[in-house]
Request: fold
Amino acid sequence: MRINLQNLDNHSGNTDNICIMINPLAQELNDTLKGSVVDALISDMGRRLYFPNGIISQGGEAAKDAHAANGTIGMAVANGTPIELDSYKKNMPGLNPRETVAYAKTAGNPDLRNLWKQKLIEKNPSLKDKTFSTPILVPGLTAALSYVSDLFVDTDKPLLAANPCWDNYELITCARRGAEFHQFQCFNETGMNLKSLEDCMKADAKKYGSVRVILNFPQNPSGYSPTKDEAKAIVKIVKDIAESGAKVLVLSDDAYFGLNYENDIEPQSLFAYMADLHENVLAIKADGPTKEDFAWGFRSGFITFASKGFTEAQYTALTTKFMSAIRSSVSCSSTPSQSLVMHALQDPAHEAQKKELRDMLKRRYDAVRKFVNTHKSSVLTPLPFNSGYFMSFNVKTGNAEDIRKKLLAEKGIGIIQIDANTLRVAFSSIDEDKIEGVYENIYNVAEAM
Reply:
């Protein structure tokens, strides 16, 4: 039994004091992390997580040493190769069965993980001489954020995010983890509202002794990334709070990384600056090819950890905790997606092809920018935007949902209502020659409300 009933009232059936025991394997990981910033930030669920010495770990041992026969993993194998139906193979002729139908490792293809780590350094040169974990592959960035919340968000460990933000943040925090969801005002009249971010982080630090903040750039729904000066200011805010003694988790949601359209944008992920900022800071990076490499349906993402002074043993323990979250939910990610990403990243034409699509998005951005800079509305005010897939409007009068519905019903144009005062437009999905007409209709419908 893994459940210890303490002070159980046999007459009333009261089980309010049920305590779930910690598995010895979990305790070993907790002991390795003891005294670290992770130890201070981790949730109750995070403390309970461990990677069992079961089918997966025993199968891993057998894969190395079972030279006579390997009867560990539940796959059908012939002559040492996974069996593959021709109906699958004919549609993936360039991949072998181990790249298509075989189970993937819990943390992902090791070669792909190491390649992604190399790419992180290429895209973020400040990471070159810094220590950080090997990225863990997850089934999409939503899963990455959900697993991070499993490990670090709890009833007394709230998550702080921008307002406005992607609606899934609140769903994960409140519905899944039963935690409070706090928000800072993302913008003021001139750009990022750094004072609101600082005030809200300090409030959480004072009340809880720790802060868990998610910073999403380019941001969904606004399509904004911090300037170089704003990025420096954010880093200083985090460092000051860490130096005050509070533990700070900074989760960089970099789903749209690299899609920058203005010259003053900070080109590197905030993760690159948080990685060795302070012993009280745990930096986490969530990214992947989903948006960055235009592979939306692959559902492949990565999670990477960094903290100043963290040892290899501690990185291994934290990675094992995270693998436990994967193992206990989806077991592992899709093998074909990983194989396709691996081959694409190794293709000499990959970066040039990405640039073509990014240039296309830049032209769409320029068309939107030109329109909003030359058209005024008494109802709609564009929020700051300079990157990514989206831009958003603040609805000054009326209701965003009413505008959305009327635009869809009368003009056949679909956009998203984020909240009562925010409308999001994904210019990424609108052909360049349609942008002016779409935005004219948005403005006209809003004015007519």
In short: The CA atoms of residues 99 and 339 lie 6 Å apart.
